[in-house]
Each structure stands twice: as structure tokens, then as C-alpha cells.
Amino acid sequence: FLMERGVPFVTQGRSDISDQHAWIDIDARQAFSDAVAFLAEQGHRRIAMISGDASIYSTTHREEGYLLGLERSGLAFDPSLKLEGDFSAASGRLGLKKLIDSASGATAILCANDATAMGAISQAVELGIGVPDQLSVMGYDGVRMAEMFSPPLTTLSHSAAESGERIASMIVGLVSGDAPTDHQVLLPAHIIERRSTGPV
What we know:
The protein is about 40% helix and about 15% strand. With about 200 residues, the chain is α/β, with parallel strands linked by helices. Strand 3 (about 45-50), helix 3 (about 55-70) and strand 4 (about 80-85) form a beta-alpha-beta unit. It is elongated. The model has no long low-confidence stretch (mean pLDDT about 95).
């Protein structure tokens, strides 16, 4: 709608037509690959993933990063360790229960976002599973609540303030006549290590 009318805009995140418009996004593919490597370096060999809503574009990037991370860490992909989710705490709780019920042997879980990770931790606590003593849990997004959770959540994040500044600058460029394709920015996510992860 906006493109048809020539309205300058920037999206936070990419779309299936992102080659045609301005956008800024976090490199979720690299972030999830880095997360698997981080967990593997702590000795984890059975790393599960609770994924996000399959209809959301960025879910694909997160899943690709998980698979890439396994490959780079020399770990075989086990389909039973990849569970569907919907970015909710409820899907984290359900995913954790499925992993335990299936005796998957997972020692670490990488979640599609922080809400899912906090749901998984809550379910682990209810089942008497120590985090991180028996199970490491890692999220993605860096929401403020994750720092205050118990235990504080290890996550991946990028500065929202920096993203906002970049978006404002990009809008100014577009209004000044820049081509939308000149404003396509992929930013890195950084691991924020807290107490929800530890050695296997």
C-alpha cells in the first residue's frame, strides 16, 4: 500500500518483498548460530529448539541459524529436539514438557524468544528441574523482564535505542530522495550471559 503510493517508510524486520523497500533487522540467522556455538562450548551436545510461529517471516531465519549452529559445532540434527511454538510463554511450557516426556536427553534449550524461554523455565521449576544445574535455557530479544526473571535469562539482543536512531536517519534519507534499496541494514545480536545457562 505504501509502496504503491510512494510513501517513504522503513520496516523493523524484513518481509517477503524486502528487496524492494527500506528495512532494518537483526541478523537472527547468525544470532541463533552463535547461540548454539555458545551452548556447545559449555559442553552441551543435545541442544533443543522451541521455535516460533511458522507464519512469521523471521521464524525461518531463527530456525536456519539453529541448524547452521549445529552443523558448525559438529552436532547432528535430531528432529525430535526441534519443537514448534508460537512465541508465547505457553508454548515454552508445553515444549519443555514434551521434551521431558519424550526422554530426549536435552541438556539445553534455545527458545525463539524470551517469552518462550521464560515459559520453559517456569515449567522446569514446576517439574523440579534445576536451571541451569540440570538444564540450560536461552532466549532471544533481550526484553527487560528477562533480566529480572528467576534465574535471570541468558539471551541475545541488540540495542533498541541504536535501532531507533538508525531508523530515524533512514527515514530522513528517504524523504530527501534516497532510493529505498540504499537503506537496508542488518545488525548483529549480542549474547547477554546471565544465570539461566551453564556447563552441561
